[in-house]
């Protein structure tokens, strides 16, 4: 009996919990309710699941003809719907997808969709459901005046101003591709070691159906007293300009965090300019250039160069004592030989020249003559001896 009562109590508590639980729901939010033609739009569905539901099914329908760039975790049906289905383990979550606004889109466009949970009752998706495409005109306008906003360490100069102008050569709606441009200029005060220096930010954007380029030029308008070291410029890219993955940066940023990029320059001299470009391969409204308001700058005073070191004194050369050479011995001088005194006769000189060479040795000619003389003498002796023998 007690077991039945406990079972009934548990069932009653369960039904009471279901009755009083917050109902599950799905709500839509749009990254922009006024997107530009040819731009991307991110749609987020916030799924809130109460403690009793374990199942949900969602059928989302973007405006007809809008291309689904990325369905996220959903499945795209042939009719252009995106669907999600979860069994048994439903939990609160966010589902996102990306679509492209047609270049010829105009006016108000509606989203529709349905969802259902465990009660099997179909409900329309809550939240934002319409977007209004702005119509581009050909007018030219300009504004000036008004103080800029202090962004981080860069404060606006006193009396500084922001000016902008927009021009166009034809209607963009309908995909005509006529380029338009926007230019804005802002003066910003940067504290450089106690010296207030003005850096001018000039942004110019040119757009067509195939590409959009935002050019940012930073100019140090000060003189040599405003030479900067370790100049850092951080720029926040607004989501309605483009997603970070779509943008080509030139030069490449030093670092990035979320949708902010940081450029670090070792030096930024007075009168110098630095140019940055952000390029997107599609049309972006030139008006988006005015949305770049989240920037900051910082710089340091350059460290003066140390004076050149004085040259080290040269070491004195060692003094060498003069060395006296010993007096040279005087060679005995030969007395000149008087003509005719102690000189051999002239014929002796001729004989000596004939018998001896310049080194004092007997010459070959002399030896040959001596041999011939000996041979003749020997032959003569033999001849005399034979003659004497015949007589006897």
Explain what you see.
The chain is mainly β and 392 residues long. Helices cover 15% and strands 36% of the residues. The strands form five sheets. Strands 13, 14, 15, 16, 17, 18, 20 and 23 form an eight-stranded antiparallel beta sheet that branches. It has a five-stranded mixed beta sheet with strand order 4-7-2-1-11, with no helix packed on it. The longest helix is centred in the C-terminal third of the chain and has 28 residues, at 364-391.
Layout of helices and strands:
Layout: H1 2-20, E1 25-30, E2 40-48, E3 56-61, E4 67-70, E5 75-76, E6 82-86, E7 93-100, E8 107-110, E9 112-116, E10 123-124, E11 126-127, E12 130-133, E13 141-143, E14 154-156, E15 162-168, E16 180-192, E17 195-207, E18 212-220, E19 228-236, E20 248-250, E21 255-257, E22 260-268, E23 273-280, E24 295-300, H2 346-355, H3 364-391
Parallel strand pairs: 1-11
Antiparallel strand pairs: 1-2, 2-7, 3-6, 3-9, 4-7, 5-6, 8-12, 9-10, 13-15, 14-16, 15-16, 16-17, 17-18, 18-23, 19-22, 19-24, 20-23, 21-22
């Amino acid at each position: 009996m007690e077991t039945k009562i406990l079972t009934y109590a548990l069932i009653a508590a369960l039904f009471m919990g279901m009755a009083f639980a917050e109902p599950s729901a799905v709500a839509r939010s749009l990254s922009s309710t006024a997107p530009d033609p040819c731009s991307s739009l991110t749609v987020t569905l916030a799924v809130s699941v109460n403690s009793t539901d374990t199942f949900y099914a969602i059928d989302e329908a973007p405006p007809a003809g809008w291309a689904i760039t990325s369905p996220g975790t959903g499945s795209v049906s042939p009719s252009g719907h995106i669907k999600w289905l979860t069994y048994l383990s439903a939990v609160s979550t966010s589902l996102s997808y990306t679509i492209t606004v047609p270049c010829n889109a105009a006016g108000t466009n509606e989203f529709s969709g349905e969802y259902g949970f465990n009660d099997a009752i179909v409900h329309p998706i809550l939240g934002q459901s319409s977007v209004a495409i702005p119509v581009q005109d050909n007018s030219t306008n300009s504004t000036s005046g008004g103080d800029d906003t202090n962004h981080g360490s860069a404060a606006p100069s006193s009396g500084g101003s922001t000016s902008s102008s927009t021009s166009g050569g034809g209607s963009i709606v309908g995909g005509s591709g006529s380029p338009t441009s926007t230019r804005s200029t802002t003066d910003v005060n940067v504290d450089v070691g106690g010296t207030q220096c003005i850096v001018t930010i000039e942004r110019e954007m040119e757009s067509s159906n195939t590409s959009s380029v935002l050019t940012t030029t930073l100019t140090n308008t000060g003189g040599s007293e405003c030479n900067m070291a370790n100049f850092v410029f951080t720029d926040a890219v607004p989501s309605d300009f483009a997603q970070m993955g779509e943008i080509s940066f030139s030069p490449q940023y030093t670092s990035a965090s979320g949708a902010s990029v940081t450029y670090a320059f070792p030096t930024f001299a007075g009168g110098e300019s630095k140019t940055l470009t952000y390029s997107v391969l599609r049309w972006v409204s030139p008006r988006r250039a005015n949305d770049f308001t989240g920037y900051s700058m910082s710089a340091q005073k350059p460290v003066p160069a140390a004076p050149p070191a004085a040259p080290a004194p040269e070491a004195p050369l060692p003094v060498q004592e003069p060395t006296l050479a010993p007096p040279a011995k005087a060679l005995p001088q030969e007395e000149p030989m008087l003509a005719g005194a102690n000189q051999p006769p002239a014929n002796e000189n001729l004989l000596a020249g004939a018998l001896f060479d310049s080194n004092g040795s007997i010459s070959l000619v002399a030896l040959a003559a001596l041999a011939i003389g000996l041979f003749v003498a020997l032959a003569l002796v033999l001849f005399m001896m034979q003659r004497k023998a015949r007589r006897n």
